Amino acid sequence: MRVFVTGASGHIGSAVVSELIQGGHEVVGLARSDASADAVKAMGAEVRRGDLRDPAGLREAAADADAVIHLAFDHATMMAGNFPGAAATDLAVVQAFGDALAGTGKTLIGVGLTRTGDAKRDAVIDGNPRSAGSRAVAGLTERGVRSILVAIPSVTHSARDRQGFIPMLIKIARDTGVSGYVGDGANRWPAGHTLDVASLYRLALEKAPAGAQLYAAAEEGITVREIAETIGRRLGIPAVSIPAEEAAEHFSGFPFITMDITMPNAETRRLLGWEPVHPGLIADLEEDHYFTGD
User: Fold this and answer.
1) Residue 120 phi, psi dihedral angles, 5° rounding
2) How many CB atoms lie within 10 A of CB 164?
3) Contact predicate 101/62, CB 8 Å
4) Would you state the pLDDT for residue 293?
5) Which of 238, 236, 237, 218 is nearest to 282 (CA)?
6) pLDDT (tens digit, 9 = 90+) per residue, 171-189?
């Protein structure tokens, strides 16, 4: 297939592009900068210059492809404190792809979760401003698009990971001298190795039915306390409980510390024949790549 990939030079996108090319697919990667274009070209993909604020260009790129994998997100705007604005851009991108692909039966793979009927779980899903974009992707099945949603684990880890949950926790631990968690630290985060997530994307492209909700977590949920204790041991500092009333200040810039969600993966494994083969999160933390070069 000819596949248009947004976020092609990013942490997950670069792994997905390489996986698709190795699987025999032709890839076109969206590149906003010269550096991104060089990275996409170096992977063996065709470069499409543009960005998320060019709906006409995105529609054209989607129409010229057999499938679209949408991984890009305006993280700069989100980190500047305007998460709703970044989410609004994402929704506009999905709508542009929908306009281009409607009635074609072509594939759009987006990021996110659909509601499950579990009130507590759905509250977490709906609390994420990106959920509007996810619902829009899911709704495209009614417009003749083979739309698929992939829930990317909160912790997608590997030597490629430079800005995710783990690097942020390590930085906070180094800055404060303690590796913290909130309360008893029993809240859980799903995790998956970047290369296993990339493998799932290729299988989703090749096998998943329209309307599928896939979970790319190799590990359904790991307690934040276990993660913090491993980081503390690696840094040689104590792992400590941070009182809830002090969490916002201690984890400044990282509002996800108390997030509690799991990703059951049995159905995804069965549907795609997906078998993760790379190290789990704790084993990956025992390697040096997260703790060197800073």
Assistant:
1) -65, -45
2) 18
3) yes
4) 65
5) 218
6) 999 999 999 999 999 999 9
